[in-house]
Design a protein that fits this description.
Layout lengths: L6 H5 L2 H9 L3 H17 L1
Length: about 45
């Protein structure tokens, strides 16, 4: 993931990012999809 697709993810508290990492980063993947959709809608 690059910086431009991690805006929402980086807003999460560290504890949630740590738990997400331990589980294989499904939350990061979901937020990346959501950000892409938001970007497509706003374009």
């Amino acid at each position: 993931m690059n910086q431009s697709t991690e805006g929402l993810y980086n807003l999460l508290p560290a504890i949630y990012r740590q738990r997400d990492f331990a589980q294989g980063e499904p939350l990061r993947a979901l937020l990346a999809v959501m950000e892409k959709v938001m970007k497509d809608i706003s374009s």
